[in-house]
Amino acid sequence: MKRRDKINYYLDIAETVLERSTCIRRNFGAIIVKNDEIISTGYNGAPRGRINCSDSGNCFRDSMNIPKGQRYELCRAVHAEQNAIISASRADLMGSDIYLACHDAKTGKIDGAIEPCLMCKRFIINAGIERVIVRNTKDSYTIFNVEDWLDNDESVLSNGY
Prior knowledge:
By secondary structure, the protein is of the alpha+beta class. It contains seven helices and five strands. The chain has helices at residues 6-17, 53-56, 60-63, 80-86, 90-93, 118-127, 146-151, and strands spanning 26-34, 37-43, 97-104, 131-135, 141-145. Strand 3, helix 6 and strand 4 (131-135) form a beta-alpha-beta unit. The chain is globular, with a radius of gyration of 16 Å.
């Protein structure tokens, strides 16, 4: 039997984590790994103690026809990356990698055209995470070096803010 490569092994685990997601649009799973040890996991869903979209059957962003990637402040969910980060100590996060997997909630199929949102990028930068590895297909992935986000800071506007 051929052994699964390490990156896809961790992405497989992130896919298992996304099964806990309570979003009715897209299910995300995240795991943070440092020195070949899983530090924490996270999936997207409403904050603890609040009603999940999967329980209510309603997504406010869907009802408003808001496209994916926009108006996250209207979403009930805490993102998978954020949940994984807040479940770990910063000392453990420094120099780690975060692995992300996403499925379309309606079809259950891999949605590989993803990248952390601007808000999650700020969390990832501040946490000291070095790389973000995103599942594209069952066997392919994209690696983002967080340092590149610092060199190409999209939050700096032309008017100096």
